[in-house]
Write a structure and sequence with these properties.
There is one protein chain. The chain is an all-alpha fold. 50% of the residues lie in helices and 1% in strands. It is built from 17 helices and two strands. A two-stranded parallel sheet has the order 1-2. Helix 5 runs parallel beside helix 8 and helix 11 runs antiparallel to helix 12. The relative contact order is 0.13. Its cofactor is Zn(2+).
Length: 438
């Protein structure tokens, strides 16, 4: 379905008003809006000659990814401990662009990720480094995206389970690594790799985790990294997605979370900020866009319990405005996506900005995607909880069912039948894959 851009002249009235009280924050906000305005004005002028604008530089983005998978600039040296992340950002971006690397290249990727696997379980950010939840998450998602038995076998579910126990706290929280920091990222990463490895939400490993996550919800409605910290877009996604994967939102205020989330969309730019009074950033296209998606799914699922209902046929943010910001302001013509106008391209922003574009276009599986500009601007759907291809999630579920690692002693508070229901990929498809396509 064709989406329509806003009238860029009319929406100038939505620009920030500092009410004659300058602050460092207001000065930076006005600077960004002026940069965005230049992008909007240019596309408005060109649209009079070409009504298929804005243009999506698909081929250029693919070439950027191909180049980065083999060769990186010296600027990436600081990410030596995040090499599994680099792989994930590239593979997920390629999925959104409907591009497949050759079997030879993917074989090399599997070989590299195996080198990052640790004897004590889990993955490190690079060979011969220490296991860490964040690169473990990135490595597992990367292997799932490849969608082969060889890749899924490389996950090593027993090792994953062993590592998760080593970073678990008695209250259900998770450290990022042994003796490392505790925050809601750890809980989300642990639950994600656990679910994709075949570990049930009812496993004793996750006992108390939902209650700990709920303590991270702030008075604003969003989640902070830990209890009593400021609400943040990335942490809010991690908290909501983790609770969805645990099937437990009984102790959080979803209405307050939704209100906070939708107010993060910038009125003029169309993109999202990550915190109150912060600047727009392309990466929050996914963190916040998917968060709204997840919250709406959770509210619909739990409406029978609290009587609160919501229209689930449409996302509660301006989908076309988000696409405008991404396509007009966040693309580099030579390939790669960015934070905001004036910033350089990088793999992180390429991945999450493309994933946000996917969320904005694809919501309801019974309806056509909403795509602004040329229909060729459409990207593939991504799973709102895992941020990988929905079919990759289902293949991982099926593989885990065929190679179980749990026993009844691992479980708390559920019968054998309940456990079987949770592990049944058909049920997972109804609950999770359906969400991704909506």
């Amino acid at each position: 379905m064709e989406g329509h851009t806003r009238n860029f002249t009319e929406i100038k009235s939505a620009k920030f008003d500092d009410e004659n009280l300058e602050t460092l924050t207001s000065i930076e906000q006005i600077k960004v809006e002026n940069l965005v305005e230049k992008c909007f004005d240019r596309i408005e002028q060109l649209s009079s000659m070409d009504n298929t604008l804005p243009y999506f530089y698909r081929k250029e983005h693919i070439r950027f990814l191909e180049r980065c998978l083999r060769f990186l600039s010296t600027g990436y040296e600081c990410l030596d401990a995040s090499r599994t992340w680099l792989v994930y950002w590239i593979l997920q971006s390629a999925h959104c662009l409907n591009f497949k690397f050759s079997y030879e290249v993917l074989g090399d990727v599997i070989h590299f990720l195996k080198k990052c696997r640790c004897p004590s379980g889990g993955f490190a950010g690079g060979p011969s480094q220490l296991p860490h939840l964040a690169p473990t998450y990135a490595a597992v998602l990367s292997l799932c995206l490849i969608e082969t038995d060889e890749a899924l076998e490389a996950i090593d579910p027993e090792g994953i389970k062993k590592f998760l126990w080593s970073v678990r706290e008695e209250n259900g929280a998770f450290r990022m690594h042994v003796d490392g920091e505790i925050d809601v990222r750890g809980a989300y990463c642990a639950i994600t790799v656990g679910r994709l490895s075949g570990i049930s939400p009812q496993n004793k490993l996750f006992e108390g985790t939902a209650n700990w996550i709920a303590k991270c919800q702030t008075y604003e409605g969003g989640f902070g990294g830990s209890p009593n910290l400021e609400a943040h877009g990335g942490y809010s996604f991690c908290g909501a997605a983790a609770l969805a994967l645990l099937n437990d939102v009984s102790t959080v205020n979803l209405k307050s979370l939704l209100r906070w989330a939708v107010y993060r969309q910038m009125r003029y730019e169309g993109g999202f900020q990550g915190r109150t009074n912060k600047l727009v950033d392309g990466c929050y296209s996914f963190w916040m866009g998917s968060l709204v998606h997840v919250i709406q799914m959770l509210i619909e699922k739990n409406s029978c319990h609290d009587g609160y209902t919501i229209n689930i046929d449409e996302l509660m943010f301006h989908r076309e405005a988000l696409q405008e910001y991404i396509l007009i302001c966040c693309q580099k013509p030579h390939g790669g996506l960015i934070d905001k106008p004036g910033k350089p391209e990088d793999l992180y922003h390429t991945c999450y900005t493309l994933s946000g574009l996917s969320i904005a276009q694809n919501f309801n599986s019974t309806k056509q995607p909403i795509v602004i500009g040329n229909p060729d601007n459409e990207v593939l759907p991504t799973h709102p909880l895992y941020n990988i291809a929905p079919k990759a999630v289902m293949k991982a579920y099926f593989y885990a069912q065929q190679h179980p690692i749990e026993s009844e002693e691992d479980l708390v508070g559920c019968t054998k039948n309940q456990h079987n229901d949770e592990q049944n990929p058909a049920n997972g498809q109804k609950e999770n894959e359906g969400n991704a396509d909506q």
